[in-house]
């Protein structure tokens, strides 16, 4: 579908702030134009190295998702990005319009107002219009520990997330992402109890109801959603919903497998390979599409030879899947929802759900030295301070 251009200032007032990451900001359409109802708009932001962007660079983001991410994840998990022309007048007004809604921690970056195009996507919170929709936005992070025995030994014992939190002096209150990635209902429940109830961490998990964010630190989305469904039980519902979906749906296993397979050597061994070939490695989309194809062939035929360049570029791909987010949308099951996934809880409540992976932008090859430096800082601090914890990250691979 070709969307009409957004190039007038007044059009910006029909979009409401949803959220943002390091590279993009997302707004939801709240106007009356049927063309845009049920859609969100993703606009690109600036950073220290990126003050302007051309159309071809933006289109390459779509091409990366279509040709690399979709074949690796599976098409059911990937949103279509539809390019739309955006004018400076519109983007200037949009930047002003959403400024007050943006978190203070994000204000160092700004919308690139001369970006020639942006992307339209389906608003995942409106898949089932009129139904009480619950949305989880989960950033699962790394789901594995290195299998390569040539890395610093502490990495084989503790997960990277927990050691990084230790470096940043972040209190996780017993949370570990390895619990989420496990196939144990007890461990998943342990992780969700922290994220949803005892010590919410909104950088890891956000919840919205009918598209409206709920602050886990201040509100009770569990009670709110039960009220919408007419459920009076005192038993927590949201953890049970999310646990049932994470157990049933293979998305976390898919992510964990991609992360571990594409990062089979660890950055300690990738850095020397990168340094040997620096300046000679191509990073165009054709190259990454070939890398993805070669990886899939190797999974089918494990004896297939692998080049150093392939290993370096696979590592770059792994960083995309370590830093993505998962959008899980849930609503009461309806007879009209054929084609969607369903889950039934112990209380016999049947829900329909949809899972999409977002924030799957291609990472920069030249960040490998930075990733190595960060890795060594995390590891050195853990060793020097005698990092230890009796948690799942110690015992689960």
Automatic annotation (TrEMBL):
Organism: Mucor ambiguus
Higher taxonomy: Eukaryota, Fungi, Fungi incertae sedis, Mucoromycota, Mucoromycotina
Main function: Phosphorylates Ins(1,3,4,5,6)P5 at position 2 to form Ins(1,2,3,4,5,6)P6 (InsP6 or phytate).
UniProt keyword Phosphoprotein present: no
Entry keywords, A to Z: ATP-binding, Kinase, Nucleotide-binding, Transferase
Identification of the protein by name: Inositol-pentakisphosphate 2-kinase
GO molecular function: ATP binding; inositol-1,3,4,5,6-pentakisphosphate 2-kinase activity
Pfam families the record matches: Ins_P5_2-kin
Catalytic activity: 1D-myo-inositol 1,3,4,5,6-pentakisphosphate + ATP = 1D-myo-inositol hexakisphosphate + ADP + H(+)
GO cellular component assignments: nucleus
InterPro entries: Ins_P5_2-kin, IP5_2-K_N_lobe
GO aspect biological process, one term: inositol phosphate biosynthetic process
EC number(s) reported in the record: 2.7.1.158
Domain description: The EXKPK motif is conserved in inositol-pentakisphosphate 2-kinases of both family 1 and 2.
